[in-house]
Design a protein that fits this description.
Layout: H1 9-17, H2 26-34, E1 39-42, H3 49-59, E2 63-67, H4 71-84, E3 92-95, H5 101-112, E4 118-121, H6 123-126, H7 129-137, E5 140-145, H8 165-172, E6 177-181, H9 186-195, E7 202-205, E8 213-219, H10 223-233, E9 238-242, H11 246-258, E10 263-266, H12 272-283, E11 289-292, E12 305-310, H13 317-324, E13 334-340, H14 342-352, H15 357-375, H16 380-387, H17 401-404, E14 409-411, H18 413-425, H19 432-440, H20 445-449, H21 466-478, E15 482-485, E16 491-494, H22 496-503, E17 509-511, H23 521-527, H24 535-552, H25 562-571, H26 576-579, H27 587-607, H28 626-636, H29 641-647, H30 652-664, H31 672-678, H32 681-694, H33 700-707, H34 714-729
Parallel strand pairs: 1-6, 1-7, 2-4, 2-5, 3-4, 5-6, 8-13, 9-11, 9-12, 10-11, 12-13
Antiparallel strand pairs: 14-17, 15-16
The structure holds adenosine-5'-diphosphate, magnesium ion and zinc ion.
Adenosine-5'-diphosphate (ADP) binds next to helix 3.
């Protein structure tokens, strides 16, 4: 017998929610539940899962129990529900540990008097004996288990209390169960059905395609500036920006604020009052943008989020899909932009070192899928849906960057063979960088120390540079021709598939023009320009630099470096304050040399009647980086560089990068205590004189060529260059 077929559900939909039609397969799901069947709903975020239990709860006699994981969000859900169904305030309630005794009494009264149609309960409240006793006495229409993937350890948000739901339902008294989730991997599905003891439930799986979302991956070059530009070009629109670390969340939120954007931060390290206040402000549209860690967003129903930006590439595609899913829930515009640099992947790999092997293996696999997604030339939608076990067959989805701006590809078969040969020739005991150096024939000190410059394969791919080879190696990883041992610091090994490839090579298309290598905020200005440089101004500034250099008897590059001048020729800073925001210019530099530069720029702007691109003048929060402060303090205390690097868990090269950036922005550091330990005085003098008198520019490579790689390491030269800049320039 079917109760549901006689009812016109559309009338109820219209009456209670004001919608004219059901979304996706909402209607069949609701009918199934009305018929008293156990129901399992797999629907992407924004698909309209809530309505699948809200509507039947209003139709059926009794109260529906909704189990939902986040206390903070329950209130929002209940408010939203009351908003829709304005006929009666008593219609939805929640029961959780945030309520006072009196409030609990009131809720119980409403439920007992049968006014409450929907009762939201947190899983930890459900397990309380007094609540079980109470629920036993009332008439329950059905149980709804939202975010049901929390049951599974394989889900991205496992909650142990979720595993106790089934036995408690038995205690309270059986009623139909509807479980809902946006996680569709087969493993998680299986876990849910098993744990809830409903192997015969009707399963409704919707397509996970979100046709209104536009997917895009951009190289992480000047990401902050790109984000500010994007937000300013889309005024008044709501958006979420995800970062991986709490620190970055705070920094970025602050940078957006000083640039006049209404933005707030959200992460799990904030106190809960501030956190929910910030979330409410976003929901109420007092702020446009939330900068958050992934702690933000689950269950949030803000239908008109217009963009979701990933400042950092996420750890898994699953997570990426959930997070982007928060855009365009109402079916309107939803732009998903991810900033990607391979460096970020390497950072995530590093975090995994030392974790249990099984966990590493899973993590490695997830990262590989993310890399593949980011670097691929294939339709993004196709790749995402494939990940969820769905076949997307359209040639061109029309709403992803790879479809609207196809990337060039070329046949890479021969390159792959060369790379495989070199990996084998170095006995599969070296990292990608080393392999790329051997391939391109770059005899670095590392290569020489293993005598790899004497190998027959040395320079086997010298027609291409290291960057090219690094990209080829990444694409080989993605296609399982080689693999990387995370535990052993990323040594490359050839897989059986790779061996087969050498035996019998086949077509292997490689994506061109992808510069995802080692680009990040700090060196971005040097490698990628987002706006056109005013060449005329640039040459004026270079002349000025030369003149000042001559007067002070210093090499020009000590004053400002090229990237700084280029940045000035893009942004036309006309005050010292604005100059501070130019790449590589800190307060020290701005004060010492800035005046003359801003005066020249000001004059130029006035003469040429240039309209300065105000939205491009990105203000930064000066000297915020905790790492930099730590380094400066440690050097003041004469702590050895090795110890500093160790205590911050970074490599020496990265530490030197940081120190260089500190010195370049005008802070003076005295490294003598360290340099004196690692280099004798004569050598120091020789390098110093080289930079003082001979150097054409600041290049390390040129210095090594001139001074001899046998006598000096790259690190020596960098140390002396830092000393030189610090003493002469600052
Ligand atoms: P999910 O929980 O699946 O992520 P929600 O239940 O929060 O999605 O619903 C997403 C959005 O879709 C909400 O703004 C909701 O009001 C809207 N919605 C749900 N059903 C319909 C419908 N039949 N017609 C129009 N909008 C709907
Ligand atoms: Mg939901
Ligand atoms: Zn596409």
């Amino acid at each position: 017998m079917s109760v549901s077929t006689d009812i016109s559900l559309a009338d109820y939909l219209k009456k209670y929610f004001g919608f004219d039609t059901f979304k996706g397969n909402q209607e069949v799901i609701i009918r199934n539940l009305l018929d008293g069947e156990d129901t399992f709903v797999l629907m992407p975020t924004g698909g309209g899962k809530s309505l699948c239990y809200q509507l039947p709860s209003l139709i059926l006699p009794g109260t529906a129990i909704v189990i939902s994981p986040l206390i903070a969000l329950m209130k929002n859900q209940v408010d939203a529900m009351r908003n829709f169904v304005s006929t009666d305030d008593g219609i939805a309630h929640f029961l959780n540990s945030s309520l006072s005794k009196a409030a609990i009494q009131q809720v119980r009264k409403d439920v007992t008097e049968q006014r409450t149609k929907l009762l939201y309960v947190a899983p930890e409240s459900l397990t309380k004996e007094e609540n079980i006793e109470f629920l036993k006495q009332i008439n329950i229409s059905f149980f709804a288990i939202d975010e049901a993937h929390c049951i599974s350890e394989w889900g991205h948000d496992f909650r142990p209390e979720y595993r106790r739901i089934r036995p408690i339902v038995e205690k309270i008294g059986r009623a139909p169960i509807i479980a809902l989730t946006a996680t569709a991997t087969p493993k998680v599905q299986h876990d849910i059905l098993k744990n809830l003891g409903m192997p015969d439930a009707s399963v409704f799986k919707s397509s996970f395609n979100r046709p209104n979302l536009y997917y895009e991956v951009r190289p992480k070059v000047n990401a902050t500036r790109e984000i500010i530009k994007y937000i300013k070009a889309n005024p008044g629109k709501s958006g979420i920006i995800y970062c991986l670390s709490r620190k970055k969340v705070e920094e970025l939120a602050e940078t957006l604020q000083v640039n006049g954007i209404k933005a707030l931060a959200y992460h799990a390290g904030m106190d809960s009052a501030t956190r929910s206040e910030n979330q409410d402000k976003f929901l109420m549209e007092d702020v446009d943008v939330i900068v958050a860690t992934i702690a933000f967003g689950m269950g949030i129903d803000k239908p008109d989020v217009r963009f979701v930006i990933h400042y950092d590439i996420p750890k898994s595609l699953e997570g990426y899909y959930q997070e982007t899913g928060r855009a365009g829930r109402d079916g309107g515009e939803g732009r998903c932009i991810a900033f990607y640099s391979y460096k970020d992947i390497q950072k995530l790999e590093k975090f995994m070192q030392g974790k249990p092997v099984a966990e590493q293996e899973i993590g490695k696999q997830l990262l590989l899928e993310t890399t593949a997604y980011a670097e691929s030339a294939v339709c993004r939608r196709k790749m995402l849906l494939h990940y969820f076990g769905e076949d997307y067959t359209e040639e061109n989805c029309g709403t992803c960057d790879n479809c609207t701006h196809p990337k060039k590809q070329f046949e890479g078969k021969d390159y792959v063979v060369k790379a495989l040969k070199v990996i084998l020739a170095v006995h599969q005991k070296f990292k990608a960088e080393h392999v790329a150096q051997v391939l391109s024939g770059h005899a670095t000190s590392g290569v020489k120390s293993y005598k790899h410059h004497l190998l027959e394969v040395f320079g086997l791919g010298k027609e291409k540079d290291e960057k090219f080879w690094a990209a080829v190696l990444r694409q080989m990883l993605v296609h399982y021709l080689i693999e990387k041992e995370i535990e052993n610091y990323g040594l490359l090994k050839v897989t059986p598939k790779g061996h087969a490839f050498i035996e019998k090579p086949y077509s292997f298309m490689i994506v061109e023009n992808h510069d995802y290598e080692s680009l990040d905020e700090d060196n971005a200005a040097a490698s990628g320009r987002t706006a056109a440089v005013d060449e005329e101004l640039l040459s004026i500034l270079k002349d000025l630099r030369k003149e000042i250099a001559r007067k002070k008897n210093l090499p020009p590059f000590v004053i400002f470096q090229d990237p700084s001048l280029e940045d000035m020729a893009i942004h036309y800073p006309v005050s010292l304050e604005e100059l501070n925001n130019i790449t590589g210019v800190g307060q020290g530099k701005a004060l010492r040399y800035g005046k003359e530069f801003v005066e020249v720029i000001k004059k130029y702007v006035e003469e040429k009647e240039i309209v300065r691109p105000a939205e491009m003048v990105v203000k930064s929060v000066v000297n915020k980086s905790g790492l930099k402060v730590y380094i400066i303090q440690s050097i003041d205390r004469k702590i050895s560089l090795e110890d500093i690097a160790n205590s911050k868990n970074i490599e020496m090269g990265e530490l030197l990068d940081e120190i260089e950036s500190i010195v370049h922005s005008g802070t003076r550091l005295n490294l003598d205590y360290y340099i004196n330990q690692v280099m004798d005085e004569d050598h120091q003098q020789e390098v110093f004189d080289y930079f003082r008198e001979e150097a054409e520019d600041e290049s390390i490579k040129a210095a090594l060529d001139e001074l001899g790689e046998d006598d000096y390491s790259e690190e020596d030269i960098r140390l002396m260059r830092i000393k030189f800049f610090s003493e002469m320039g600052n």
